[in-house]
Specification:
It holds the Pfam family PPR_2. Keywords: Repeat. InterPro entries: E_motif, PPR_At4g14850-like_plant, PPR_rpt, TPR-like_helical_dom_sf. This is PPR repeat. With about 725 residues, the chain is mainly alpha-helical. The protein has 39 helices and two strands. A two-stranded antiparallel ribbon has the order 1-2. The N and C termini lie far apart (about 70 Å).
Length: about 725
């Protein structure tokens, strides 16, 4: 059997804390026998009276292996591994004649499995068992070692132990399956279960629950159904932990109803069952039903169950889905009162709640007070900063995460930061993130790939976007959509349309609503009116995609640019009332103005004012139309209405990143720039070059624009 460390290392001695004098547990004349004392110890431990059990133990004149095993197991059950290990060391020091048997070693190894911090002590115990020969033939010690290594994260060591075990029982096999599940190797866990089944080893409810969890995590619904059939034949469906795991399997695989049926069949639901029901509703987007299930859980006297931290984490996630900050704050107060706010699952859900609501200060405070920050904690706060466009704070946290060294950033972290870089057009920073994603091995993840395509597209580097797209490892709609949008937004309509048609002909690819927005935008830029209309009409009939506000807006803009104003207005009239907004009417208004349809433009402007009373667009367009026709009184009247109603036109602005020189910001109408005259002169040169034309016009304009920016810094 493999040795984790040199057996010469001595087992770490645990110093027992100083104790006050203990009361005499037995009168001097009525000392019980060792058998009676051990029986009383077991009774007290089972009743949860650990303090009284310790009084009895300390008062025993003669303690055997059973006495030590029982009291150590009591502290393990009470989640006090340090005291359990102290007692094991005390046993070896106060009575050297006692040779720890496999049972006391197994119990002590359970204490070492309580967390990674105790892994060193577990390795010391492993070395001791090798030196004493206890690990060679005992299936109990071997199984306890396997379980210990698995729980402290040393999965390879655990599986090597299993392979070298001379004899195995059902617990050994179940521990091996559980080790593979913890390591994320769920398919291997199912194969291990198949080997166990083929060896005719009897399986109990714990074995089935473990392999069902593997099926749930890997979304192996068909395999899970086969195992469910075996469970049903054996009559184990009524077992709470098996029923809960089956419900989780169906929920994670998107089949909610069978899981709910199983949970509803349970005579008495425990907190795990209720939490599974609530999580099932949250994961399937039925947040209101999740809240109602929680109310039933609290109100039913026959099923009165106290919620745990996972229950509250699911409920807080439901409040996020419902965008109900007040409900989330009430749940926050409840977890504080119950003392489970420090649980990582709860704190992570709270960070997401406040970050999504825009309360970054509250989210950051909770994040700072989270004792054990895992990858979900870091990603939740960084994603919140990215959503609020707080570039400085997001990258400050990312740097802090990297300095902490653990956990390393994952695909969700990189995806959020790449989206922020795309919004800020921070191309160089995005390239650095790309390099770090390659080092982390997540650059081929679909979310990272789509984030890279969006970054390079929005930063004007379509060649790099195309390389990221062509280098993807899997066919996912989101990557295709990002590339189509990138081409469309940069006027590369032919490439966008060609890519959309390729997507339709690729096996397993179905265009979604975002892909149709991209191709309709491309048709709009290219003036392909009839083709764009055909794409729009095929959404519902051929692809089952319901047109939304953005799709109708693209078609109205497409028809309006072609001068087909009446058809555009008809499209608006056919839109669902809930989808009509000021944007589509503004598109129609501009089309009417361009065609000279004053009546249609005035009618569209009235609708824009009604739907967007605070917008200045309709007033400005009408005023410009009247001014262009020399109707100065009407133009002045529109301007006067703007002032009377307090409507102001927001000034346009742009920014240019010049590397180490910083960022230059330009605001329309602003003359306060320190080199305003130089900027204007350079803009005149750019305009002159554009008007002169020629083969090198684009290159000359780019060079002039770069010089303009450098001069202005």
């Amino acid at each position: 059997m493999f040795s984790p460390i040199s057996p010469r290392l001595r087992l770490l001695r645990f110093a027992s804390p100083a104790r006050p004098p203990l009361a005499e547990p037995f009168p001097p004349r009525s000392r019980p026998t060792a058998y009676e004392a051990n029986a009383r110890l077991r009774h007290l431990i089972k009743a949860g009276r650990l303090r009284d059990a310790r009084l009895v133990f300390d008062g025993m004149l003669h303690r055997d292996e059973v006495s030590w095993t029982v009291i150590i197991s009591g502290y393990v059950r009470a989640s006090d591994p340090h005291e359990a290990l102290s007692l094991f060391s005390l046993m070896r020091s106060v009575d050297p004649s006692l040779d720890p048997d496999p049972f006391v070693l197994s119990v002590t190894l359970k204490a070492c499995a309580s967390g990674p911090a105790l892994g060193f002590h577990g390795r010391c115990l492993h070395a001791y068992t090798l030196r004493s020969g206890r690990a060679t033939g005992s299936v109990f010690v071997g199984t306890a070692l396997l379980d210990m290594y698995s729980k402290i994260g040393a999965h390879d060591s655990a599986l090597r132990l299993f392979d070298e075990m001379p004899s195995r029982n059902a617990v050994s096999w179940t521990s091996a399956v559980a080790a593979l599940v913890r390591a994320g190797r769920c398919r291997d866990a199912v194969r291990c279960f198949a080997e166990m089944w083929a060896s005719a080893m009897p399986c109990d409810g714990h074995t089935y629950a473990t392999v069902l969890k593997a099926c749930a995590d890997a979304h192996l619904l068909d395999r899970g159904r086969e195992i469910h059939a075996h469970v049903a034949k054996l009559g184990l469906e009524a077992s709470s932990f098996v029923a809960n795991t089956l419900a989780a399997l169906y929920t994670k695989c998107g089949v909610l109803q069978p899981g709910l049926v199983l949970l509803n069949r349970m005579r008495s639901r425990d907190v795990i069952a209720w939490t599974t029901i609530i999580v099932a509703y949250v994961q399937t987007g039925r947040e209101e039903e999740a809240i109602r299930a929680f109310v039933r859980m609290q109100a039913d006297p026959s099923d009165a169950v106290s919620p745990n931290d996972y229950t509250f984490a699911a409920l807080i996630s439901a409040s996020v889905g419902l965008a109900q900050l007040t409900l989330g704050e009430q749940l926050h107060a409840s977890v504080i009162r119950r003392g489970c706010v420090a649980a990582s699952s709860v704190s992570n859900a709270l960070v997401t709640l406040y970050a999504r609501a825009g309360h970054l200060a509250a989210a950051y405070t909770i994040f700072q007070h989270t004792m054990q920050k895992d990858i979900v904690s870091w990603t939740a706060i960084i994603s919140g900063c990215c959503r609020e466009r707080d570039v400085e704070q997001a990258f400050s946290l990312f740097g802090e995460m990297r300095r902490a060294a653990w956990p390393p950033p994952n695909e969700y972290t990189f995806s959020s930061l790449l989206g922020l870089c795309a919004w800020a057009a921070a191309l160089e920073v995005g390239r650095q993130l790309h390099a770090r994603a390659v080092v982390a091995g997540v650059d081929n993840d679909v979310m990272v790939t789509s984030g890279l395509i969006a970054l390079y597209s929005k930063s004007g580097s379509l060649e790099e976007a195309a390389r990221a797209f062509e280098g993807r490892n899997s066919e996912e709609v989101v990557s295709w959509t990002a590339m189509i949008k990138g081409y469309a937004e940069h006027g590369r309509s032919a490439e966008a349309i060609e890519l959309f048609d390729r997507m339709k002909s690729t096996a397993g690819m179905r265009p979604d609503g975002v892909a149709f927005i991209g191709v309709l935008t491309a048709c709009c830029h290219a003036g392909l009116v009839d083709r764009g209309v055909r794409y729009f009409l095929s959404m519902r009939t051929e692809h089952g995609v319901e047109p939304g506000r953005e799709h109708y807006g693209c078609v109205v803009d497409l028809l309006g640019r072609a001068g087909r104003v009446k058809e555009a207005e008809k499209v608006i009239e056919e839109m669902p009332r809930s989808e009509v907004d000021g944007v589509v009417w503004a598109s129609l208004m501009r089309a009417c103005v361009a065609k000279g349809d004053e009546e249609g433009g005035r009618r569209a402007a009235a609708m824009v004012k009604e739907l967007e009373p605070g917008g200045a667009g309709a007033y400005v367009v009408l005023a410009n139309v009247y001014a262009g026709q020399g109707r100065w009184q009407e133009a002045a009247a529109e301007r006067k209405k703007m002032r009377e109603e307090g409507v102001r036109k927001e000034a346009g602005w742009s920014s240019v990143d010049v590397g180490r020189e910083g960022t230059g910001v330009f605001v329309a109408g602003d003359r306060s720039h320190r080199r305003m005259e130089d900027v204007c002169e350079m803009l005149e040169l750019i305009d002159f070059a554009a008007r002169m034309g020629g083969d090198d016009t684009e290159t000359e304009c780019e060079a002039a624009a770069e010089a303009c920016v450098l001069w202005s810094m």
